[in-house]
Amino acid sequence: MAFVISIFGCGLVLGALSILQAKVAYSSSFDTYYSPLWGLPHLSVNPQGSEAQLQMDQSSGAGFRSKLDYGSGLFHIRMKIPNKRTGGILTSFYLTSAPDNQEPGNHFELDYEFLGTNGTVQTNVYNNDEGHREQSFKLWFDPSADFHTYEILWNSHQIVFLVDRIPIRVFKNNSAHGITYPSKAMHIEASIWNANWAGVVDWSQAPFIAYYQDFGFQACSAQVGGDVSGCGSEQYLWNRQDYWELKPGQKLEMENYRRLYMSYDYCAYASTRKPECSFNV
Ligand SMILES: *[C@@H]1O[C@H](CO)[C@@H](O)[C@H](O)[C@H]1NC(C)=O
Ligand SMILES: *[C@@H]1O[C@H](CO)[C@@H](O)[C@H](O)[C@H]1NC(C)=O
């Protein structure tokens, strides 16, 4: 994965050069990729478009979404969660196939959600259903002290969650074992909101502010009507064989990380386990 990032880095540098040479704009500014979604007065973007802030207080949270829908890609954002200690506040970055402002119903969704501000990050996968595939992790840093990169690789072979380029979770395409795999166009959302199930909010500490940066990402956009049939093409870097499974070093890294830091795993309990648990390891 480090390889891709460095290629992307080069892309940015080349983009910057071409601005000088040909006045071709290459931007990773907020407006290029994202639009406000809800809670507008609680969303602010700096004039350069390089940082967005989402504010949560007792009146509202806020959220933004990608302008387009996608069928595969290498999605990421840099995020810093609120630095005031409380439960109940959720700070998120995720992909979802659910239409805006509707009850999601059965849908696909790939989540990073901070539960409260104590540094526990929960990942979840909705696989055209109600989800309940939570895996939660402690991080090896304080996510409220600085920006860190939260990334999701999605191709037709695997979905990988990476934090600062370290893979922490893989959801494989196990259709050979009869397991559903995300097949519909998804867009990105990021939001701050509150939920009783994530603990009690200490409102005396409000407002809670989440910060986002680094808005550019690489992905295959869906055609009008949500057709993603072209998004498996190997013209896209993230669909090439290198990305079909983790490299041995990455697998080791992930196993070590999960052994040390995973605090909840739906696969660990008979009552929450799902069929893919037998095949994702
Ligand atoms: C899952 O993998 C199978 C091949 O094993 C492939 O035919 C199918 O298109 C993949 N599903 C998705 C949604 O990418
Ligand atoms: C952090 O908060 C979450 C959600 O309230 C809770 O499940 C978890 O146990 C807490 N972790 C620590 C280290 O306090």
UniProtKB/TrEMBL annotation:
Organism annotation: Sesamum indicum
Gene3D superfamilies for this protein: 2.60.120.200
Annotated ranges, domain GH16: 12-212
Pfam families assigned to the protein according to its UniProt record, in alphabetical order: Glyco_hydro_16
GO molecular function, one term: xyloglucan:xyloglucosyl transferase activity
Signal peptide: 1-15
Active-site residues per Swiss-Prot or TrEMBL entry: E109, E113
The keyword Signal is assigned to this record: yes
Organism superkingdom: Eukaryota
Protein name per UniProt: Xyloglucan endotransglucosylase/hydrolase protein 3-like
Any one biological process term the GO annotation gives: cell wall biogenesis
Keyword Signal among record annotations: yes
Keyword field: Glycosidase, Hydrolase, Signal
PROSITE patterns hit by this protein: GH16_2
